[in-house]
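Example 9 (inverse folding). The structure is encoded as follows.
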């Protein structure tokens, strides 16, 4: 049983705490390797796990051809595209729904730039829950189609992702739904930290020197920081790896914040980059990202759309890994960080590849399940019509 002993607030986000010790870490050889392997360090009470789909346990790939091309002999790819809906968002979805199933909640809501919404729609479908999703009107149509195919109710919000978050959170409060919004629900950090435990185990109970992470709202990076910090707290590791957060040049609020300078408006435009997954103008837990990066001696870098698309091609052509532009940001960031002296090619480097390009299956978006809204009363009216 994961025994949470309390929680603290760090740089604007809630951080669950445990009674740390090495006994909390699984020791057996994993029969089936999923994130529930780490349940002693997760807020999951005793009893069988109810979430019905295996999540996590993704491969750490040595990528020999990519190593040769880049001159990075100790480079690894943590391939999160192997999760059921092809992104790391499945981890957070699973833990939030696991909690909801135990509490008998029948509806989950989230806002999303796309991948968290797809993960939530499919996770809810598998668990027999209703999903109510809020996305921007410029959400990728292929992702929208997947959400509706999984039976989710989707609200497209004209004012974009930040307004979608506000509406989703208001709906969760008003109707008592599960609130999966990243950064708002501490379970999203708890679930995503299991990537740190997996990397440590897959490297033979050893940590890399540096890890590259795409950053949108920041939960993925902060969760890794927490996971690595917990390995230190458990007495299982002596130090944490440096974390380098990567943002798209056209939407890089945290790179400028890290440099201590105000961002120009042209560099805060979520619609202007190919990396929709990390195009977040006001990151939910940006302060915690900056804190984690500073404490670990890492940094933040911005990459151009051209570099993101080259990274997509290189991951496919030299590692056999299919990634979407946001998912490939870690590789683009490596080149930029080496140029700036933030990383060295001889170090043990892990690239977190967070998401795969969604294929257009040709299956339709079910129009009856998508409503374009601006205000909360429009959401309420649409939902009343559903009952
Ligand atoms: C593919 C991909 N990578 C990275 C991220 C960024 O994750 P976070 O919001 O936790 O920083 C997202 C978020 O949607 C994503 O879809």
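The amino acid assigned to each position is listed next.
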């Amino acid at each position: 049983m994961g025994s949470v002993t309390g929680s603290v607030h760090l740089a604007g986000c809630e951080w669950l705490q445990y009674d740390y010790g090495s006994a909390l870490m699984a020791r057996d050889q994993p029969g089936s390797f999923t994130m529930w392997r780490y349940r002693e360090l997760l807020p999951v009470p005793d009893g069988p796990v109810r979430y019905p789909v295996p999540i996590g346990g993704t491969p750490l790939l040595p990528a020999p051809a990519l190593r040769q091309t880049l001159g990075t002999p100790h480079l690894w790819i943590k391939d999160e595209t192997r999760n059921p809906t092809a992104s790391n968002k499945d981890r957070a979805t699973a833990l939030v729904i696991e909690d909801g199933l135990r509490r008998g909640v029948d509806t989950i809501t989230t806002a999303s730039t796309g991948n968290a919404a797809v993960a939530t729609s499919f996770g809810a479908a598998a668990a027999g829950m209703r999903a109510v999703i809020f996305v921007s009107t410029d959400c990728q149509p292929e992702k929208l189609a997947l959400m509706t195919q999984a039976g989710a109710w989707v609200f497209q919000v004209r004012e974009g992702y930040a307004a979608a978050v506000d509406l989703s959170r208001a709906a969760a409060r008003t109707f008592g739904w599960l609130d999966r919004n990243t950064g708002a629900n501490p379970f999203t950090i708890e679930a995503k930290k299991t990537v740190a435990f997996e990397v440590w185990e897959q490297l033979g109970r050893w940590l890399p020197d540096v890890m590259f992470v795409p950053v949108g709202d920041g939960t993925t990076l902060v969760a890794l920081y927490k996971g690595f910090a917990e390995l230190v707290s458990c007495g299982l590791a002596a130090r944490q790896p440096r974390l380098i957060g990567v943002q798209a040049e056209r939407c890089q609020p945290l790179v400028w914040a890290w440099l201590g300078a105000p961002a120009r408006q042209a560099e805060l435009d979520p619609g202007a980059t190919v990396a929709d997954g990390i195009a977040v103008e006001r990151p939910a837990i940006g302060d915690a990202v900056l804190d984690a990066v500073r404490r670990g001696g890492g940094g933040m870098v911005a990459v151009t759309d051209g570099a993101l698309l080259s990274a997509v091609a290189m991951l496919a052509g030299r590692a056999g890994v299919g990634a979407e532009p946001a998912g490939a940001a870690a590789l683009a960031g490596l080149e930029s960080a080496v140029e700036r002296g933030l990383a060295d090619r001889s170090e043990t480097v892990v690239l977190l590849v967070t998401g795969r390009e969604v294929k257009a299956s040709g299956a339709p978006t079910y129009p009856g399940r998508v409503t374009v809204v601006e205000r909360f009363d429009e959401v309420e009216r649409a939902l009343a019509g559903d009952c």
